[in-house]
Amino acid sequence: MNKEPANIKSFKIKNKTNSKIHAKKRIQTHTHEFLGSTKLAEAGADRHNHRFAGVTSQAIRRGNSHVHVITVNTDFFNHLHQIRIITGPAIPVGNGKHVHFAKGRTTLNDGHVHNFEFSTLIQSPLI
Question: What is the 3-state secondary structure (H, E, C) of the chain?
Answer without folding.
Answer: CCCCCCCEEEEEEECCCCCCEEEEEEECCCCCEEEEECCCECCHHHCECCEEEEECCCCEEECCEEECEEEEECCCCCCCCEEEEECCCCEEEECCEEECEEEEECCCECCECCEEEEECCCCCCCC
